[in-house]
Design a protein that fits this description.
55% of the residues lie in helices and 0% in strands. It is an all-alpha fold. The protein has a domain of 48 residues. The longest helix has 15 residues. The chain is extended, with a radius of gyration of 22 Å. The relative contact order is 0.06.
């Protein structure tokens, strides 16, 4: 069986010595500023309030949102802008 106490202690030790790699510092800083900006914080607090009944968990919402935030809620983007779409189907699709 998994020893949760041992795993929790090991993870606590890892977090105490964790460091941001110097070559990733600019990227991490940019993401942190974006996620903690006042407008973003306000939005994440609203989600936290709706999900858990408290706005205090907004950092969790921000971290969860980060990897999926760039995915369009309406689906994949079109390969061509609307004004460049084909008006007629390709010949092999014609009946």
């Amino acid at each position: 069986m998994t020893n949760i106490v041992a795993i929790t202690a090991a993870n606590a030790r890892r977090w105490q010595v964790a460091k941001i790699a110097p070559n990733r510092l600019v990227e991490v800083s940019r993401v942190a500023k974006r996620l903690t900006a006042p407008a973003a914080k306000f939005r994440y607090q609203g989600v936290s309030q709706a999900v858990w009944g408290t706005p205090d968990r907004w950092p969790v919402v921000a971290v969860i949102h980060e990897p999926v935030g760039r995915i369009s809620p309406t689906g994949p983007r079109k390969a061509r802008p609307d004004d460049k779409l084909r008006r007629n189907p390709p010949p092999w699709l014609n009946p």
